[in-house]
Amino acid sequence: MQDSTVHVRVVSPIVTRGFRKLADLKALEYPGVTLSHAEIGTGPGSIESEFEAAVSVPGTLAEVLRAEREGVDAVVIDCMGDPGLRPAREIAGIAVLGPCQTGMHVAAMLGHKFSIITVMRRLKPSFENTAALCGLSTKLASVRSVDIPVLELEEDLSVTTRRLVEEGRRAVEEDGAEALVFGCTGLMGCAGALREGLLAEGIDVPVIDPIPTAVSIAAALVRVGLSQSRTTFPAPPQKQLVGYDELRAAALPAAAE
Amino acid sequence: MQDSTVHVRVVSPIVTRGFRKLADLKALEYPGVTLSHAEIGTGPGSIESEFEAAVSVPGTLAEVLRAEREGVDAVVIDCMGDPGLRPAREIAGIAVLGPCQTGMHVAAMLGHKFSIITVMRRLKPSFENTAALCGLSTKLASVRSVDIPVLELEEDLSVTTRRLVEEGRRAVEEDGAEALVFGCTGLMGCAGALREGLLAEGIDVPVIDPIPTAVSIAAALVRVGLSQSRTTFPAPPQKQLVGYDELRAAALPAAAE
Amino acid sequence: MQDSTVHVRVVSPIVTRGFRKLADLKALEYPGVTLSHAEIGTGPGSIESEFEAAVSVPGTLAEVLRAEREGVDAVVIDCMGDPGLRPAREIAGIAVLGPCQTGMHVAAMLGHKFSIITVMRRLKPSFENTAALCGLSTKLASVRSVDIPVLELEEDLSVTTRRLVEEGRRAVEEDGAEALVFGCTGLMGCAGALREGLLAEGIDVPVIDPIPTAVSIAAALVRVGLSQSRTTFPAPPQKQLVGYDELRAAALPAAAE
Amino acid sequence: MQDSTVHVRVVSPIVTRGFRKLADLKALEYPGVTLSHAEIGTGPGSIESEFEAAVSVPGTLAEVLRAEREGVDAVVIDCMGDPGLRPAREIAGIAVLGPCQTGMHVAAMLGHKFSIITVMRRLKPSFENTAALCGLSTKLASVRSVDIPVLELEEDLSVTTRRLVEEGRRAVEEDGAEALVFGCTGLMGCAGALREGLLAEGIDVPVIDPIPTAVSIAAALVRVGLSQSRTTFPAPPQKQLVGYDELRAAALPAAAE
Amino acid sequence: MQDSTVHVRVVSPIVTRGFRKLADLKALEYPGVTLSHAEIGTGPGSIESEFEAAVSVPGTLAEVLRAEREGVDAVVIDCMGDPGLRPAREIAGIAVLGPCQTGMHVAAMLGHKFSIITVMRRLKPSFENTAALCGLSTKLASVRSVDIPVLELEEDLSVTTRRLVEEGRRAVEEDGAEALVFGCTGLMGCAGALREGLLAEGIDVPVIDPIPTAVSIAAALVRVGLSQSRTTFPAPPQKQLVGYDELRAAALPAAAE
Amino acid sequence: MQDSTVHVRVVSPIVTRGFRKLADLKALEYPGVTLSHAEIGTGPGSIESEFEAAVSVPGTLAEVLRAEREGVDAVVIDCMGDPGLRPAREIAGIAVLGPCQTGMHVAAMLGHKFSIITVMRRLKPSFENTAALCGLSTKLASVRSVDIPVLELEEDLSVTTRRLVEEGRRAVEEDGAEALVFGCTGLMGCAGALREGLLAEGIDVPVIDPIPTAVSIAAALVRVGLSQSRTTFPAPPQKQLVGYDELRAAALPAAAE
Questions:
Q1: pLDDT tens, E150-191?
Q2: Domain D100-210 falls in which CATH fold?
Q3: Which residues on E lie below 8 Å from D49 (Cβ)?
Q4: Within an 8 Å CB–CB cutoff, is residue D5 touching chain C?
Q5: What is the dotted CATH code of the domain comprising B6-98+212-256?
Q6: F35: Cβ contacts below 8 Å, ≥ 6 apart
Q7: Domain extents for chain A?
């Protein structure tokens, strides 16, 4: 039997301090798993567009490199756009997971089809693209949104919950969803309320809260010695890099080994 | 932080005693996870055909019911045909996982495409069908076989390993696989040898050993309160059942709650 | 010109006697085709779940073996879940057809897209899975249900017909279906009423009654010497089988030749 | 029990007389099914290109209209390009079948995947397109060709057979085919020789001879009252038509009813 | 820098004179691109069925041959059924484009998913088939129709525009379209009105007018020396052709070089 | 007739000066189209990994904003990874095209299937992902590589050409490609040599040189008033951005209008 504790770090790819509370992450720990948290230094206040996702990547990659240096076992990127997941997997020697990719696969394991309940309608193409890249297009029943911006989700939780239940019910009844995945990590902690609200309407489907799920799956993969494929994600070639001093190490393959 | 230990039971859907050794399963335990094992009373000696899979199902369902009665948290079916997975999920109140479905999703999380390395060529359609049902057809690079029957895999481990490396290398180089999944749970424990053999040829891909992986993922799902969708797998309606006395409870929905 | 008569047997995979009337099957005969009927000895009263489908398989396989011994030319399994189709094809030397697979392919031959009209909503994933395995996912417009249990379909035929027309109309107008397939063999004989009801609303689509269709297609295949592929469905390997005495022959490949 | 005989006409969409022998078609008759034959008056000598297929269509449509006037029950178009199938289905009140579409669906019913063995490599895109339109792309393992033009197939049957066996074997062993379909109706009658040749090499797969198969399936559909969907193939609107006097009736919906 | 002017001819595959006005095409010219126009001599008055499309093909092929003889650089077929596109590409040494195939690819370049807004509901299968052949099924959000026959589109342009805006809005809001393509070349010139009407409702999506778009793309391809693949569209083999005197040259490969 | 000249700018997302020569771009101009060029200030020396693509994006976005300020009509990103295409389309009011997406759609317009011939094997998943996002997975025959790094392509052009012909031939003969697309914009200008080399081996397929093609298509789209969908690519919400001063305007929607 293995003795060691698995250390998973959640990296929030935004510059807004306090949006993700360490206490909320600590509450997710269980025997054999410990969590830590980091935010990025340069980048957007929140992520609701491809532009914001793009400018969150360099800062995120720097945090992934730092996590590996500090002996962390696995990193979970704290955004449903999985920003930087692919480059991070190239430059890191430890496992890096995205909550969207992970949540979609878990949903497909548990139910016949799943829907994403996200914050803004404009994110729909992005989720359909991620499903396509995961090979899961046929499992994605729909993408629905509550039309509340990320940074306003906690302003009135009763409104957020009511909208989640409403769209969740329509996903099941109109779109054929048999499992639900939150389409924004800002909704972390709302899964219980959504599930209760749906049960009250006679709807019994799993609600996947992507950050707790990705953390738990990351730890499970570490336990069986699995990480991203080095053939899919080989270290980048050694090469000139102008700017991005904190990523210099990634451009030198020796450092990434 | 949660304190409880998660109890996962591996159910081998065959009547051959000693094929799966409890000690090998106990070696998979880690902090917070405990394993147990069961075999079935009626059914085939091993599973290499749709016929054998079919006649393993009633016995497997009986063991799933028993596991739930005994307080087990999750069941993993010990065969890459995932025999009985769907009916078991209907009659059980606990999580039931199949190693094939789980292994395929994990492979798709880790690499761009994956191949199955199984025992006999005749199982190829079955794996392609499972991939289709998982929505993962586009991620399945190929199904390759070592052409050694299940019950002869351990006769000469050096031959088995050599054949695994040979087919694994061809899966990567000829078929485009970037991760490998064993296509028979009888290969449990060979992942390390296959991975080393491939590394010796300059090939660096994850090798997914389905039983350890499915056990670890099952425990991870239990930790975050997830199980199969009740909308996809509702309890069967109450109804006449002739024969199958040990499954009578499953035909009575009250018992299945 | 061939002289012989083709003998097709319909095997109802349920223990409820009298549900399928021989006279109704005899009415399907035409020059050169004769029909017979069998039910199973152990199994469920009707099939509305994966569990019931699973426990209908061993009894169905026994009837398929018996049909072959009695000189029948082809067997049609009398349930839209096609329970036991794949193992039956392995153990039988004669053609075995499932009405769901057959009905879906016929529908795809006749119209651009088709819908399934079945009894209960819970069967939807099962039909979508069969379509995926047939390679026909893009041809399946929708699965709709009349929400009447199998054994109550004949209680009030006017209600059943009204509900069929209602869901058939919505399948065409809302889902884009251009052909319809009954999703329960318990609806056998209702195709005329559904087609008339739809014509009265100006909708002209083929209505595929799966049992008559599968019987007719089975006879057609026998006429041109075709049966299931022995490469897809090879005889099972000779092996130990505990229980299932009536299936012992199937475990001995000599018997299955 | 139905008494009538079903009359199926095979329409060869070429101007080469004697290519299709009536005696060969008469040999396909069985109790309850009678066959007749027609060729077209204007069009190509044989069909090996999209151009030749296109100029075979008006003549084929004229023959379909004539068959219906003469009381034929169903028409089978005698070319694996299924030329004119869709317009013929619009203008005819009787069932019209294409051997390619029909053969592909039958192959998919019988085996996991199928390959087409055709005459010339240049036809490959056409078969892949037909598979896509049938929704069967995932079932098409490959398209292989013997590289013998249609009108030379019978010059040396031993060469043709040897090439068929060679490509058939490669389709099974290299491409994963588990059933084979002739990709040219000029190969009618060669299925037995191909099947024997493959069995001699230990390969046991169904060989679908498209014309006998489509005739038999056409008769089976007539027996159960099925024909193409009027929603997919509605009669053309009444409208001006310059030229094509023999098709004038088709431009007048009254005639097509 | 290239100096020559690119000459694109629009071939309307109908016999109705004056339906396409040369002045409307001349208005599409821009520096370096000149347009001309032709109609066919035998064929239908307009195209709203597979039958009409089929009988438009021989006349269209004759015009394609004539365009090449006259030194035209590229031909655009003026019908969203792309009638004769494939045979024309075989017999022509110049580029031939279909507005449907081209419009769909352009729509997929510009937005996540697109819808077709066409004239009659009955054309829906045809558009879904074209999308499948283009490999773009997953990009086609829906096919909607204004239910106005081709030759009546200009009778009351305010009605046509109102219906276009109505169906365009529903395509975006209900079906998830993010770009629109006219499904009838008879709608040429209406794109501005549709786009303005949608903007007035707060909907901002590209509206692709297929003839101007295909003309512009055709000229762009000529500029970079690209044309259809000779491997996909090889010249037809030399062979007997009865009738179709104006196409005799196409049956002689020398002429098609 | 339109009079204005269309101005297309090619933005090379690398810091290596002189890799792309303005003279080579000027040679692509034709009547009505003018070209200009820009490189980025911070980022990688060349792009052969997801990491390098990621760190090229902020610099690329800055150049897209500058191009729009300078009155350019359309931007083509000079890398087959299409880095920054999606965020650039959000922040720009002018058309932005990626050569990979554009080249794939053009290839699918011209031939039945196409292959990518790229520099390094490791880029294969990236091209398969782009094809999936374009909806063109079924059109992608294969991805082949010459195994020469980007910055060494011009070291010995005869070696590069020989390798291109070799892999191009295998793509056609072994993988079924009927058109070819260069998988690295560093190969610009080699299309003629590849096409000649293949013709010398009897292979006649279009070779798509992505930068000239994307430039020409971009100009064609500008001519018909088309640009990316504002529904797929809406301007980013106004929000805090730490760092990336040159992108501040993009975070303010007013600036992006």
A1: 888 888 889 999 999 999 999 999 999 999 999 999 999 999
A2: Rossmann fold (3.40.50)
A3: 87, 90, 234, 236-237
A4: yes
A5: 3.40.50.12500
A6: F7, F8, F9, F10, F25, F26, F28, F29, F215
A7: 6-98+212-256, 100-210
